[in-house]
Each structure stands twice: as C-alpha cells, then as structure tokens.
Design a protein that fits this description.
Blueprint (H helix, E strand, L loop, with lengths): L1 E5 L6 H13 L5 E4 L10 H9 L3 E3 L3 H6 L10 H11 L4 H9 L3 E4 L2 E4 L14 H7 L7 E4 L6 E5 L5 E5 L3 E3 L6 E5 L13 E7 L4 E7 L3 H10 L4 H9 L2
Helix pairs in contact: 7-8
The protein binds zinc ion.
Length: 244
C-alpha cells in the first residue's frame, strides 16, 4: 500500500493540484492521509475541500479548519490569520461546513497515528523542539506519528534509551530498521515555512518500508494574484514567495 501524506493545504489550490500531479507521475497512492488545515490563509477553501473529497482519503482537523467553522475563537490567531479565517468562513458551502465538522482530531492506522498539531494537544501544540517531542511520545501508542501544523519537514526520533533527536526530513526515510519511534512532519503543501517555497509532501510505501519526501514547484504567482483579488492580507500572499 502507498499513502500520500499531505498537510496544511491552506486553501492553496495551485499547490494542491501540483502535488496531486506529482503524485500521479510517481505512480499514485491508494489513499491520501491529510493532517489538517485544509483551509485558512489561501484563496480557494471550497475548491480545496472539494478536490480532497474527490480522492479516497482520511483527514484530521486542524486549528484553521476548526476556526473556519466557529469551533475555536479567532482571538487566538494573529490579525492576518484571523482576517483570512473570517474571509474563509464566508465562502464555505453548507456541505463544506458539515465536512469540516466531521473531521476527527486523531486517527490511528496500523503503526501510524495521525494528528494536526501534537498527540497531546491535537489542534494547538507545535512540535518544534526535542523537549516537546519527548513529552508527546507518551501521548500515542503507535511506533510512528505523522503531524502537520508547523509546516516544517522534520523528524523527531526517540531511541531505546529515551533520548530524542531532531533531524531534517530526508528525501528517503527508512521505517523498517530498528525500533526507534518517530514523530514525522512532511512539511506544508500550501504554505511551506522552511525557507523553501515549493510545496512539500511525502509518499509512504508500506512494502518498501520507506517514506519518500518530495518538493514540488507550483504557480505561486497564480495563488498570490487570487489572494490580492480577494483582498486577503498582502503579507499572507508575499510569504509564499519565500516559503515562510
Ligand atoms: Zn497550518
């Protein structure tokens, strides 16, 4: 079985389409595992939900998904994110809202836990340090956990002596070797934040025991133009050029 691991699409249809094209070129996947924040920031919330739902997929809820349907207060957001959230909420169809309400916070699939932020606080917590990762290994039972939220392709590895190490996500991550547990972030599709503006995603190949990480070029200016035409905050459009 092959799974496409996608996170933080953030209403960026051009990036999402480019990732799906790339996935197809590489032989496709049986299922998409989406780690939340399908909407928020970008110009095409409805279209992104619609496109995701055209594929066999699993998806967990992210903070922006919840904010767009009023499950959480946007006062926790910075002003630009809050403005984009209100804009998003007005553009969701009834069906989109029902879909976002249906998303669970956590899913378990075999050896893998799926969550947006962290196993401890699925919607809010960012795992960016070995300290927070170390705490979070106690909050899930599977060997591996896929996360999103920080939009940074990182791997946290817990060894048998309970020591946690941080690595950049390599282009090929072996999952069969050893018994170390991993928290893995495959980066963001629609708003990368690691200084690389290309869309980030991965393909999990269970038989190979490998996670393949890919970066995909997409038409950033197309998304930016739509954002400007929609009067979304300019800073949110500009950051896409630099991957931050
Ligand atoms: Zn996000």
């Amino acid at each position: 079985m092959r799974y496409a691991i996608l996170a933080d699409i953030h209403s960026n249809l051009a990036a999402f389409q480019a990732v799906l094209e790339d996935l197809k070129k590489r032989g496709g996947a049986e299922e998409i595992w989406c780690l939340g924040d399908v909407v928020g920031y970008g110009p095409d919330p409805h279209e992104c939900i619609q496109l995701l739902r055209q594929h066999r997929h699993l998806c967990v809820a992210g903070n922006h998904d919840w904010a767009a349907i009023g499950n959480i207060d946007t006062s926790y957001f910075n002003p630009e994110a809050a403005a984009a959230c209100h804009w998003t909420a007005e553009r969701l169809t009834r069906e989109d809202i029902v879909y976002l309400h249906s998303l669970p916070l956590t899913l378990c699939q075999g050896d893998f836990t799926l969550v947006h932020g962290s196993p401890r606080e699925p919607v809010w917590e960012y795992i960016l340090s070995t300290e927070s990762a170390l705490d979070n290994f106690a909050y899930f039972d599977t060997r591996f956990c896929f996360i999103g939220h920080s939009h940074a392709p990182l791997v946290f590895e817990l060894d048998q002596d309970n020591l946690c190490q941080l690595h950049h996500l390599p282009s090929e991550l072996p999952l069969k070797q050893g018994r170390n547990r991993l928290v893995i972030n495959c980066g963001g599709v629609g708003q990368p934040r690691d200084g690389n503006p290309r869309a980030s995603y991965a393909i999990l190949d269970i038989e190979e025991g490998l996670l393949h990480h890919y970066r995909v070029e997409y038409d950033i200016s197309l998304t930016q133009q739509k954002m400007m035409d929609s009067d979304l905050p300019l800073s949110l459009a500009n950051r896409l050029s630099v991957g931050w």
